[in-house]
Design goal:
single chain, alpha/beta, 15 helices, about 40% helix, binds S-adenosylmethionine, binds zinc ion
Length: about 400
C-alpha cells in the first residue's frame, strides 16, 4: 500500500518507534525558523520527544493487562497520527481491541495508513469524531473500555467526565498534562479554573502538578460515584502523567475523596506540612516554624502516587524492552521504586544551600547523614537534586551545616 492511496498531501517520512514503523509528518518541512515548535506547525501532530511517554504507556498498559489477567479493549481518543494506538496493538500482549480517534481528518487518514501498514486492521478501529462525543457513545454498560489514554494538547480536564463514564469498573485511565506552566504556578488563575486547585511555585512544583491533576480526577470521578486509585505517575520533560484505576461505588468515591487536602509551604524557612481535609481548612496563615506568612496549594491529592505492585510490574516489563529510551526509563523506574512510600514533597539542595549561603553538598552525602540520624531519605525522579525525607526543614538545615563541616569546606 502506498501513501498516495490516502491522498496524503503533505511531506511525510517513516519512523521506527518501539516495534512499529509509522508514517509521520516530516517535521523539518514545516518550520521556517529553528526556534519554532515543529509538531504544532505540521498538519498532523507527531512529537518525537513524546516517544518516552509512549514507551512508558506501553509498559504501564502491559503491567495492567498482566495484573488483570484478561484481554483489553483500549481507547485513544486524541490519537494524532495513531502511533500510540498502533504501538498498544502491536506491543501489548492481550490488547485485543484498540480504538483510535482524532478530530482532524488528515490525522485520521495518516492513522488509517499506519494501521494498514502494520497489518492491524482486524484489531484497530479508526474514528474521526470529537473525543467527548466518541467517549459518550461508549459510556454505557457492555460498551465501555478497559483502558483509556488521554494525551491531548495541554490539559486533559475537558475529557475527564466522558472518559470516566466510558471506563469499565476497575479500568485504567492514563492522563497526560502538558500545561505545566499553570500546574506549576506560573499561571495560578488558569490552574484554579481548570483543576479546581491552587498551585504553588515551589521547588517541588512538579509533584504539586501531579497532585493537582490527580485531585481533579478524584473529585471529577466522585461526581459519578466513582473512586480512584493512583497507581503510577511520572513527571518528565515538559509534561506530567497520571495513571489511575477506577472503582464504581459511592463508598469508593468517599474513600478517594478522603485523600484530598492541602500542602502548606513557607517560602521563608522551607517548612511544609499537609492537611488532609477538603473543606473548612483551619489555617492561621502563619508558618508554625518561623511565623512568616504561609502559602497554600490545593485542594489536591495527598494519597499515594504509586502502587508498589503496579510499579514492580512496570519495572519488570521495562527490563526486556529494547526501547530507544530504555536506559533512561529504567533509571526513572528505579528512582520511582524508592519513592513509592516516601514522604510528600522533597527538598532541593541547591535551593536550600543557596539561601543559607552554604556550599551545595553531594546529594548522596545528605541522604547518608539523614539515614544515620534515623530519618527516611531517598532520591526522587521529579528532580535530580531532590531529596524526599521525613526530616523537617530545620533538621535539613542542620544536616547541610554538618555536611559543610564534614567536608572542611570543599566538595
Ligand atoms: C497531543 S496530540 C496527540 C498525540 C498522540 N496521542 C501521540 O501519542 O502521538 C493531540 C491530538 O488531539 C486532537 N484533538 C484536539 N481536539 C480534539 C477533540 N476535541 N477531539 C478529538 N481529537 C482532538 C488533535 O488533532 C491532535 O492530533
Ligand atoms: Zn517558616
Amino acid at each position: 500500500m502506498k501513501s498516495e492511496d490516502f491522498a496524503i498531501d503533505f511531506p511525510v517520512e517513516t519512523v521506527e518507534e518501539g516495534k512499529v514503523k509509522v508514517l509521520v509528518p516530516k517535521l523539518e518541512a514545516f518550520i521556517k525558523m529553528p526556534s519554532e515548535y515543529a509538531p504544532s506547525k505540521a498538519p498532523v501532530f507527531y512529537n518525537p520527544v513524546m516517544e518516552l511517554n509512549r514507551d512508558i504507556a506501553v509498559l504501564a498498559l502491559q503491567a495492567y493487562q498482566k495484573i488483570m489477567g484478561h484481554e483489553l479493549s483500549v481507547c485513544e481518543p486524541l490519537a494524532g497520527c495513531g502511533v500510540r494506538g498502533v504501538r498498544f496493538a502491536t506491543e501489548v500482549e492481550g490488547a485485543k481491541k484498540v480504538l483510535i480517534n482524532d478530530i482532524n481528518e488528515k490525522a485520521v487518514q495518516l492513522a488509517k495508513y499506519n494501521v494498514q501498514m502494520n497489518k492491524l486492521s482486524r484489531c484497530i478501529t479508526v474514528k474521526n469524531e470529537d473525543a467527548n462525543l466518541l467517549l459518550a457513545h461508549y459510556g454505557a454498560p457492555y460498551k465501555r473500555f478497559d483502558a483509556i489514554d488521554i494525551d491531548p494538547f495541554g490539559s486533559p480536564v475537558p475529557y475527564l467526565d466522558s472518559a470516566i463514564r466510558a471506563l469499565r469498573n476497575g479500568g485504567l485511565l492514563a492522563l497526560t498534562a502538558t500545561d505545566v506552566a499553570p500546574l506549576c504556578g506560573v499561571h495560578p488563575r488558569a490552574c484554579i479554573r481548570r483543576y479546581g486547585g491552587k498551585p504553588l511555585r515551589t521547588e517541588y512544583c512538579h509533584e504539586v502538578a501531579v497532585r493537582l491533576l490527580a485531585g481533579c480526577l478524584a473529585t471529577t470521578a466522585a461526581k459519578h460515584d466513582v473512586g480512584i486509585r493512583v497507581v503510577f505517575t511520572h513527571s518528565t520533560d515538559h509534561y506530567v502523567r497520571v495513571y489511575a484505576t477506577i472503582k464504581y461505588g459511592a463508598k469508593k468515591a468517599d474513600e478517594s475523596i478522603k485523600n484530598m487536602g492541602y500542602i502548606l509551604h513557607c517560602f521563608k524557612c522551607f517548612h511544609r506540612e499537609t492537611v488532609k481535609r477538603i473543606f473548612a481548612l483551619e489555617w492561621s496563615g502563619k508558618c508554625n516554624e518561623c511565623g512568616s506568612k504561609i502559602e497554600v496549594a490545593g485542594p489536591l491529592w495527598l494519597g499515594t502516587m504509586f502502587d508498589k505492585h503496579f510499579c514492580e510490574f512496570v519495572e519488570k516489563e521495562a527490563k526486556y524492552k529494547p526501547f530507544k529510551y530504555g536506559e533512561r526509563i529504567r533509571r526513572i523506574l528505579a528512582l520511582i521504586r524508592n519513592e513509592v512510600d516516601a514522604p510528600i514533597t522533597y527538598y532541593i539542595l541547591d535551593k536550600m544551600s543557596g539561601r543559607l549561603a552554604l556550599p551545595v553538598p553531594p546529594t548522596r552525602k545528605v541522604i547518608e547523614f539523614l539515614r544515620e540520624e534515623g530519618f527516611q531519605a531517598c532520591l526522587t525522579h521529579f528532580n535530580s537534586k531532590g531529596i524526599r525525607t521525613d526530616a523537617s526543614a530545620v533538621t535539613m538545615k542542620k544536616i547541610l551545616q554538618r555536611a559543610k563541616i564534614a567536608s572542611h569546606g570543599k566538595f
